[in-house]
Amino acid sequence: MRSDSQLPAQTDVVVVGSGNAALCAAIAAADSGADVVVLEKAPRDWAGGNSFFTAGGFRVAHAGLPDLLQLLNPATLPDLEIILAPYTRDDYVADVLRVTEHRADRALLDRLVDDSHDTLAWLHDVGLEFRLMIERQAFRIANTLRFWGDLAIGTVDGGKGLVRGLTSLAEARNVAFAFDSPMTDLDLDHSRRICGVRFRLNGGAEKVIKSRAVVLACGGFESDPALRAQFLGAPWDLAKVRGTPFNTGDGHRIAINRGAAPAGHWSGCHAVAWDAGAPDYGSREHTNTYTRGSYPAGIVVNERAERFVDEGADFRVYTYAKYGAAILFQPGSHAFQLFDAQAAPYLRTDEYTSIATQMHAETVDDLARQIGVDASALRRTIATFNRAVEPGEFDLTQLDGKSARGVVPAKSNWAQTLDKPPFSAYPVTCGITFTFGGLRINDDAAVLDRCGRIIEGLFAAGELSGGLFYHNYPGGAGLMAGAVFGRRAGLNAAGGAVRGS
Predict the structure, then answer these.
(1) How remote is the C-alpha of 31 from its chain's centroid?
(2) What is the value of pTM for the model shown?
(3) Which pLDDT belongs to residue 142?
(4) Fold for domain 271-431?
């Protein structure tokens, strides 16, 4: 791996960013014979963008467990019967269309779904390690593991393993990296074709690397509170940021100034229930473990002790990315996830740990005192909910229809009474993950201008690209999209970049 001081003045492909999409682009381009330089705004110890902070899940179309076994590290497989239903192409398309309210760009969606399995196989073949996400997406029933929610596979060691693995693979291909190197502009030739990147190395004078193609994969604008307020509205400037503090919309601004068309849901984002005591930006140590995703097993109340979401509307992977916004708009922009002894076994072991902000009590009144809500109001909310719980079999591995009706909001699935002490409360706030607005690309990851024409030499992938997600997103689709379009961007960038071509 070449050091910053050895960066060439000219190369074939420049990739801006160092997360999943960027590294997939760099590896694909290098394997196509291109010389590649990766420019990263963050210092080396913050490399990896938002990908570092993820759980590493990839949503992939597959024909069931036998279809995935070839992609998995055998050492990670449990000695249990595994029940994992197929997830077809039609299932995948329908899920994305459903949660995006049918606004997803169909060309991008088709590319995502159709390339998902092949892209995961490519990542496996180049050396990335995958495992079944047992602790996040399966429940043990006797001697079986039953998966739910259509998301089963992820990288070994989550986002940390994903970034570490992809970075090592890029280094092995002699990709050059420059950290502390924010992009300041794109370079154009006399024909208005993109021909390089301007940047500042370690805060010094502006430099330029000439190239035949540029891939922008430098994230969204979720880390800039002013841009959040401008595009998402109030009070989004007050939200905590789950990941890197360096995703401040540089790629959006520079590319749009150079003629790129904006696309997607600029007032929308991915945001989750996030530990109220978490730092304002992501923790490199704890990464995704500040997420609080077991709310389907309990109820969620605000500081007035009122429920405000249907905790059982769907599997968590189809609701968690929008429920952060619901919390943000509650009084004080916070809420409390409540559980009793019945629900405790279903709390995710990777999230509801010793670092979680939490309170425990033998009575509802004591719990109310600890979380600072009116005890009579909390007793009333819980009693009303308990009376509304209908009979049925509680089963978190399927939409069990065990509901609470006659309350507002209803709970559509997984409703069980909250009456078995000890009781627990987990204070949560909104943690924004990434923004949905970005650059318009085609299904080859080429950036388009406002007239729908390809901007020659410019590609984009990952959270910087727009048009795929609106309002919500299905868990695991973000990393999969980054890999699919990152790989495609790298291949196509190298197709016009390899010397002698």
Answers:
(1) 27
(2) 0.96
(3) 87
(4) Flavocytochrome C3; Chain A, domain 1 (3.90.700)
